[in-house]
């Protein structure tokens, strides 16, 4: 999970919330229109984070990223 993988995740999320951000996890952006909780909301930003594979080491090879 986010909190297990990134040690600063909790404090980063809390900081964003203090600034008034609404943070939603596990949202399928391809189905937002069909979700009654989301289809009428307006968003200033939607951030799609590409998940890191979790390996350690050099990441200069685009096939590894």
TrEMBL record:
Record domain 25S rRNA (uridine-N(3))-methyltransferase BMT5-like: where: 2-61
GO process terms (BP): rRNA base methylation
GO MF annotations, alphabetized: rRNA (uridine-N3-)-methyltransferase activity
GO cellular component, one term: cytoplasm
InterPro entries: BMT5-like
Superkingdom: Eukaryota
Record-linked Pfam families: BMT5-like
PANTHER family: FERREDOXIN-FOLD ANTICODON-BINDING DOMAIN-CONTAINING PROTEIN 1, PHENYLALANYL-TRNA SYNTHETASE
Protein name (database record): 25S rRNA (uridine-N(3))-methyltransferase BMT5-like domain-containing protein
Annotated source species: Asparagus officinalis
Lineage: Eukaryota, Viridiplantae, Streptophyta, Embryophyta, Tracheophyta
């Amino acid at each position: 999970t986010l909190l297990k993988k990134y040690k600063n995740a909790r404090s980063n999320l809390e900081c964003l919330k203090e600034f008034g951000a609404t943070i939603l996890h596990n949202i399928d952006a391809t189905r937002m229109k069909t979700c009654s909780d989301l289809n009428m909301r307006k968003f200033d930003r939607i951030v799609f984070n590409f998940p890191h594979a979790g390996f350690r080491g050099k990441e200069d090879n685009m096939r590894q990223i």
